[in-house]
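We emphasize that the prediction below concerns an isolated chain of 425 residues; any contacts that depend on oligomerization or on bound cofactors are therefore not represented. The input was used exactly as deposited, without trimming of termini.
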Amino acid sequence: MTDEEWADVAEELMHQTGIAPRGDPEACRWIAVRHADDHIHVVATLAREDGRRPNITRDYLKARTACQLVEQRYELVRTAPADRTAAPRPSRAEQERAQRAGLEEPPRVVLRRHVAAAAASAGSEEEFFAGLRERGLAVRLRFSVSTPGEVTGYAVAVPDYTSRAGAPVFFSGGKLAADLTLPKLRHRWMDGAVRPPATGARGRTPRAWAAREGRAVAYRRAARAAGTAAWQMREIQDPRVRADLAAAASDVLHVTADITGDHGLAKAADVYDRAAREPYGRPPPFTTYGNALRVAARMLAVANVCWEGRSERKDHLSVDLLLLIANLADLIESAAEHRHAQQRLAQADAARRAAGRLHAVRSMASGTAGPVSQHVTETLGEGREVARLVAESFPVPLADGLGATATHVTRSARRPSHRKDAPKR
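Result of the prediction step, given as a token string:
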């Protein structure tokens, strides 16, 4: 870019931020310094010539707007908008400290992963906090000043990651991601009365039943739900349905990564998160289509929660699980197409990269999954029993969602395609 073009960029920045609006002779004084081909430095005073202070409230968002304008004007590479779909990244200090401590990842990343999985697995606020503690996290609740006893927020910490004073370093939900604040999580449980433990077949609790008989069925039903959702994402034009399917897919992916302990799946879930979120942390409206996926995530969590010891939870990638991964990749590819049609290019790219990671996990694991049968069959009675046990403690109306997935299905074990026909019911 020429000096004249860089001067225009600097002027646009000052105008959009309100520091020096065009045509204002009393605006703040500023200079731009260029000593490289790819950037400039801008320095401005924060005192106007008339003695007043400029309004610089949320100037970082205004600066982002200026950057997008000049990207379009000069046909530069488009960068992502500041819409809070991306989770806060660990700071440089966090990354360096994690390296010095010998940690594979900064605690902020690990905590975000645990909180997302616990939220997708829980049916109530109490279950959510219990799930965090079961994962070995320290949990600190924030209480209302005006209403004693009312919980208004939370923070989590890895107990072994401490400050210089030896205290755990806590991160609030909002510092992990825009959709992990307590008000946003409560939206999941909006009718949220705590229910007593239900009993299933032969008087067994849902957890005991799922541990004994339901894990394989949960994988199969989750694969079925993901395959159906991929077709729905392509065929249903309602943007509310598509937004809900994109968000619910993240729940299934996070729970799958959590119960298998597979690092590749965890990375895919991290990457996909951006594509799943609506701008500025707005939760999408619940639909029966998205709820069917949430039932699948809940079933996976129930089938896993009573395994003995988290060290024994890592499952070999079975045929059922590989089918689930393949269908999730198909669903996420459909979500990428949806985000691209919305011109949310950063989210579309995140979805494509997540789908690529899922295909890589499946390809690497396919040789260790054992012989692949010609068909993976779901038994009607088993499927309905697992679904009923899960739904009894699930907080949102799910009769229609359960009906969409509690059906007999015979599906090929290869990666399915729904490009032409809807799945059989």
